[in-house]
Amino acid sequence: MVSGTMWTLGDRGWYPVKVAGILVVLAALQYGMVLGVATEDTRVFLTVKSASVASLSLPDVSSAFVIVTDLMISPGGQPLPFLNGEIDETYFKGLQDIKPDVKFLASFGGTSTPPELFSHLTMGNKRRAAFVQNLIQYVTSYGFAGIDIAWLYPTTADKDGYTNLLKELREACDQMKLILTVTVPSNPSVIEKNYPVEDLQRYAHYVILSANEFRKLKKTSLIAPLYSLTTGSSNSLDYHVTAWKLAGLTSDKIVVGVQTNSITYKLIQPNEYRLGTPVAKLK
Q1: Crossing angle (nearest 10°) for helices 125-142 and 91-98
Q2: What residues form the membrane-spanning segments (predicted)?
């Protein structure tokens, strides 16, 4: 468990939010009617790897979305048993009873799922419909409150399949009163090339901009700086978020992913403790 202060983006700029998190902490913007809450609120998102779920503890978290990542999908489009069956369908339902305002989302994709598998499963209406049905059946049986799609990276050839997957998942999620989130790299280079902003805006409840790796390997640097240290640099969360907003993604959809771990460097010049110092290697 880690805790501290992170930053979230509001209509008038960035402001600090106290958080407690697991592995990665994400701040959502203007959470409101999605789960039937009548007033606007700031909702914290947390992520936890599926392999660590059995030891999950949330003593300081009373209200949050917890995204369970690295869930596996079979070549036939069927989500695989959770931890090879070590966790049954009552586990998340039990956690939900203890903390009713903590909502668990099942995340499919990331580095655990080859992009070619997503391409295959979304090719053709019948195959894609079966895939959507499998995902919905899985999350409802385990008591998840929603689905996160982290397809890295759909190509131009995948555009129709990707768009239709989001559309059909959103329709199915609305019927079952589930949340649909989409995780994408924060880097603006993927805008439209890999991820159509209009479709993300239309179908996702939230779009998670994963900003996990800004650091330079050959010099000391920040993991994900809020603002650029150099005028005109694109190496900042602010630059990335602004690019997505200019492309048409609204603030109420944006969730910014922030790492809470630290990095240890071996310096070439001992005692040169400043940003930009050349390093021999990461320890």
Answers
A1: 50
A2: 20-39
